[in-house]
Amino acid sequence: xxxxxxxxxxxxxxxxxxxxxxxxxxxxxxxxxxxxxxxxxxxxxxxxxxxxxxxxxxxxxxxxxxxxxxxxxxxxxxxxxxxxxxxxxxxxxxxxxxxxxxxxxxxxxxxxxxxxxxxxxxxxxxxxxxxxxxx
Length: 135
Prior knowledge:
Blueprint: E1 4-12, H1 16-24, H2 29-32, E2 53-58, E3 64-75, E4 82-92, H3 95-124
Antiparallel strand pairs: 1-4, 2-3, 3-4
Helix pairs in contact: 1-3
């Protein structure tokens, strides 16, 4: 089986630094991400005033051959919002986990992304309201 890849775009009613802080807090993932038992930062680099994207790579794992997350932050349709592009690319080492991923892939990815959104709500409140036609 080749890698599983999922791409998604969402508009969230949070400021860029709020979204960045939640996504960038890798050491806190175990507190709010389902199935995450431990996380830490192995390498960090930041050069821009306002972050445009975050890319995380897991290459030292007994579960995955690779796990890559890419988050891109762009201006949203209303002040105080951000357009978020998310990509996850992974390949399990175990054939058993690969089969399970095929069956539950969309649900797992949806729950992961939803966990980040819920974390924003928990920390920053409900955020700016973005109506459906503005996304």
